[in-house]
Structures are given as C-alpha cells and as structure tokens.
Amino acid sequence: MKAVSAGVPSLDPFFDERSGLGQDAEIRSERPRSSLQQGNRPGLYGGSSKPGVCDVDRLKEFLADPENHRKAQEWARVVGISPDSIGQYLDRLTPVLLRHDTLVKNHDYRKGRAVAFQALLEAGIAVLVDDQGIPAVKCSCGNPLSAFDGGTEKISVRFEDGNKKWPSFHEDAMVSVKPAPSRLDRLALVAVDDTHQGIVRPVGTDGSRDKTFDTREERRVPNLSGLTVAAAAQRLADSGLAAAYPGGGPPPDSAKVTGSRPAAGSELTWGQYVTLSVDAHATGEPSTPPTSGPTPPTKTPNEKPNQKPNEKPNEKPTPTGSRSPTEPTNTPTSPTKTPSSPLPTDTEPTRSSPPPSTPPPSTDSEPPASPDPPRTSSAPPTSRPPTSDPATSAPVTSPPVTSSAPVTSSAPVPRGPVSSDPVSSDPVSSDPAPSTT
After folding, report:
1. Is residue 56 helix, strand or coil?
2. Which pairing describes strands 102-110 and 175-178: parallel, antiparallel, or unpaired?
3. Calculated CA dihedral for residues 141, 179, 72, 15, nearest 10 degrees
4. Nearest to 235 by CA among 322, 297, 323, 295
5. What is the SS3 assignment for 190?
6. For the packed helices 56-64 and 69-79, what is the interaxial angle rounded to 10 degrees?
7. How far apart are CA 49 and CA 26, in angstroms?
8. E strands of 267-378, at which residues?
9. Any residues with CB less than 8 A from the CB of 362 and at least 6 apart, and which?
10. Considering the entire predicted model, what is its pTM?
11. For residue range 78-93, what is the model confidence (pLDDT) as tens digits?
12. 436, 399 Cβ separation under 8 angstroms
C-alpha cells in the first residue's frame, strides 16, 4: 500500500500538478468508528468556501486537448466511459476534502498507459466524488480513482517518494468507502475551518450553491425496526446521523433491522453514530418511510363490518408482525419538518429514499352474511323459516328483500343451507316486510 501525502506531487501524474488544478488542505485525520464507511454518511467529507479546491473546467479542457488524446483515452478506459463523455462525467462529480486517511485504487500515467496501484490518501487531499460518494478523481493531478477493492486488515503502508509519515497517521484509522445504496442529490459536509458548521452541497456543483447549518443542533433517532440495513442506513443519513454495526463490518443490505442503540426518539448531535441491531437471517422491509424528523405513531384504521364491500372474500391479510408499533402505516403526503431534520433549509428527502410503504389491507374477510330468509329461484317465499330474525334486524348495508323484486346487490349472495321444514309451516303476511332504510 503506497502512501500519498497531501500537497506532495505524484511522480507520474495525468496532469501537471504545478499548474494549480487542485489545492489540498491541512486537516488532521479523524478517528473513524468503522474502517468501512458508506458514501452517504454525514460528515464523511469536508468542504471549504475557498475557491480553487478543484478546477473541473481546466481538467475538462486538458483532457479535450488533441495533444492529450492518448491520456484521455486511458483516463476514460479506467473510468469506464467513452472519451467523448469525459466532460459530461466530470460535470456530475463534486469537489470535497478527505477527513479520513482513505484507501483507494489510484492510477498513474506511465509510458502511455494508466497503471493502477492501491493507495492511502492522507486526510486533507482534495478529490472529486461521484453521486454515490466514491472518490473518483484526485484533484491536484487529475488521476482517476476508484473504490478500494481489498480488505482493511493487515495493511502495510509504504512511505516513499517524498511522502513522509504524517503526524496523525494510525494503522487502525484508515477507511475504505463503499457506494451509497442509491444515487445522491446532495452531500452533507463539515466545514474544515469550523466543525460547528455543516455544508449542504448539491451533487455536481462546485460549492457556489452551498447552504450551511449548525452541526450542534440535535437530531432524533428515527424508528428503524423492520427496515433493511440499506434502508435504515439511508434513513439515518437523511436524519443527519451515521449507521454503525456490532462487530465492525456491516451485515447484508437486505438483513432486517430489529432495533437501534440509542433507541428511536433519542436526541443526538449531527453526525453521531447509531448502532443497528440486525437479524441477519431475516429480510427487512426494503422501502424507507419519510426521513425527516421522528416517526409519527401508527394510525390504526377503524375496522367495522361491511366497511369494505368490494373486498375479496378470500383475500388474506398482510402479516404485520415485522412492523414496529411506532412505524407509520399510513401514506403521508409530505415529510414532517422538525428540528431533527439534517438540513434546516431543505427538509425534502433525498432521491435515494424509496417511497413510503402503504398500509396493509384490513384483516377482515367478507362480513358475515345477514340472517335474511332463504330465497328460491322460482317464486317469492311464502313462508319464513322458524329460526330467521325479523326483517328489521338486517344491517343497513344489506338491501331490503321484497316479495317480487330481484336481488340487485353486487355483493355475492350467501348460499346457506335451506331449512328442512316445510315452507308452509309459517304463513307470511301479504304485506312486504318494512324496510329499515
């Protein structure tokens, strides 16, 4: 593993570093909670209001120059795009500053070829990240980067070629970044010159559209029970909090979250970690509820007989055992705005959040049939079975029965057993039964 110090030029860069394409900063490396970080974690990267952190326009001009055609071909090959798409690709990247010593796959340019090597970038180095939070370009030299593809244990770091060991270096403080579960539309950064100030930077912008917020404002831990690990991590990120896992490494994204520590409703400052309790053998709910503010209590629908006449008789209820008692089951029209929102100026959830789940169907099947008199297919009944109730006891939703009108109800006619008693045993008055409607 080759160490790359902030401010130290590469020996074989794609771009001449003396031209000022990018500017690194002096930042002491933060000690991470975990060696594997997700690209959407609030505070993973830093931001600065100073111009010149990364000059994307100059990099585009350099790679578009016919004299650099071979470099552009190799650069595009590493990224996995065509040379004609380099400009569009760079426009979707976002300049940030590393806050951790970060493991990446770096690429030098040697003898007309891009040569890959595993590298440890020092905190303070300016990089461009993609829309899933993965470092994609080292700003000062234009070298393409990609996600580190090895483990973070037992790494031997070599300090050579002018890259001296920096004071904050610790072997247990290196991080590797994995992609966010979905594409991001903004990044939540920490101002490198004032950690009490947070920065909301839209993806693909250079900092000119930044919005700031106070990182000391408290956030509520959302309810995460029943969600997948990926959905829970995204919901925490939208709330300005970070996900952590017992044992260090994250479980499968589809594993079911059973709780958190601190528990739902607890108040933390921005960027703090929440440890997820996970059942790795169960699959959680893939969709995420609204992500701003605390989760509202469950609204249980009033279930009454005959409330849903169009419900299918054999429809089975959706199991609700995996839902938390406080997880919302109604579909909200807009996210709740509370002080726990990570972005005080914009509480709209990111596009990475899936739509809220819909309420489960009622557990009622077709309502019990009313004890109306049996009907014959040929003539109106001339008698009433001894066990039938008076016609006035029928529910309101049951259509009245007349001596001659056909049945017009759209609900299926219950087919009960016909009484074995003679139909002439109980004469019926010639007047029709009074209607209760």
Report:
1. helix
2. parallel
3. 0
4. 295
5. strand
6. 120
7. 15
8. 267-269, 273-283
9. 301, 303, 307, 308, 311, 317
10. 0.65
11. 999 999 999 999 999 9
12. no
